[in-house]
């Protein structure tokens, strides 16, 4: 009997790999739905109509450019290997002659961002280098080793960071790169003066940071009102005489409690370059929602040509845009309403803010993104891209005539698009031919918005992917997908971020297999206001967000078309953490799961806080908020996936949990990706991971 069961399992696996499918419901391969070119790093020139971006086409990352009025994409580089080397910091010189970018590194990590990555396991480590290439076409030239390049407004120099110091090089590489000056601390956030005669920067010095001004002529550094504080985000006035920046409290002080939520204070200051004196023009309200914003771009501080300073704040309960006079006063709310603003850019003429927001004429726009514009000096916003699509990362061309963006839909992945910079204009995808012929556009489903309540009454939003009615049994297996972040929001269409664009594709694939898939937007996520984003007793302080994940499983189990004994779960990063919590706490509800580079022990979060008044209680809460606390009740099968050069979640988090399960004779499976990071820099590794997720869930839940 045992041999017969083994033979059945072997035949099942042979069917999987010989047919290239996991079930009779499948109509396309995993590679078909993830092999599209993903657009990112969109930028525009300060003059004219030139734009540039990257396409990651099955791991082959290249720079593309286009120019109005036709905006026909043109490939500018020839990096034709899947070697895991990221392209970032793309910019076009103000005169339109040069495209500058960085090749190499990992720029989305929480630690070790300065280190190079080597996911191809080459015997010689790659280095992080700055390149330039003529916009008109030509050979991409290596300028120097370095990172975070910023081109001067005169287009003659590039400032960049190397070893925590600021260097410069010319766009054509001649003369060679040289250090501009040496300064204590780690220097960053370079901002050229409007006339290119010097630059502002941030000097981080551990528990405090300063705003510095380097003047070309004097070859001196001037510090703008140094204090016992952390100063950041310098922005020049249009005339170059003043600078605005953010000031927050420095580290240190009396030991504070760990568990309660706290206000994180911040202020906006304006400094005079000539005298180094400053004036505080605005202080955030001393409320929880008045804390420094943690959505994309933080305060998003900018100084417009219209004589107003613009910024983001959460103090009315939503991440909105405001503007204020340089001398202070009451800030003007530019974007009233129950929605969030992110990926905020200012038009090159300084008159408009353009951004992505989850608002529009349709109530379902709460789970989408559309491009919105608003003048910097009046509350008169316009949604430029209403409809059922998802649009993000807008940039206005230098001539102010067009806006470029990343656009997607429920059935089309993120692509480059343009439209006239006016309301009610049609979006134009730049080149539909870039999608491979095998892409299964006609075989995908449109997710539906659903809501349900957690056990404590919290309203939870989710998107439901339902397989075709004729492709599945009446009782379907189901999967809960848990996003990472946690400040993310899954949408009613293809996600604009590369990591979550990939998971959206996996969800579509699982639906094609016959799974009913529920992508849950749990508390701690963005898009639903401050109290949802910053809830009490969440994360390491109680894990209250797990109630939303459990509610998602129970919502599926209550459906008459779901086999409640075959509900699985998967997620990556923070989603991996919540997957592990689900399998440890509720194995009776979640029959199997895939934990991709999840956090499993929160103890490291409060390391060094032993002197806090509530340290003993916090230690207990942190432990109970961690998956390691529930190993004894863990029964469901799990697949762990982790890259061992992860700069977001330490590889040791998975090593430790796996060892704990092993010591209790709890079986698990594992897929280790040597030398790759949290974001699967190599496409071949991405394929391997995606296929492993699907194969495990099918094998455990489709029997």
From TrEMBL:
Signal peptide: 1-25
Keywords attached to this entry: Acetylation, Hydrolase, Protease, Serine protease, Signal
InterPro entries: 6-blade_b-propeller_TolB-like, AB_hydrolase_fold, Pept_S9_AS, Peptidase_S9_cat, Peptidase_S9B_N, WD40
Location of the Dipeptidylpeptidase IV N-terminal domain: 267-403
Domain Peptidase S9 prolyl oligopeptidase catalytic: 507-701
Classification via Gene3D superfamilies: alpha/beta hydrolase, TolB, C-terminal domain
Protein role: This enzyme catalyzes the hydrolysis of the N-terminal peptide bond of an N-acetylated peptide to generate an N-acetylated amino acid and a peptide with a free N-terminus. It preferentially cleaves off Ac-Ala, Ac-Met and Ac-Ser. Also, involved in the degradation of oxidized and glycated proteins.
Protein name as it appears in the record: Acyl-peptide hydrolase
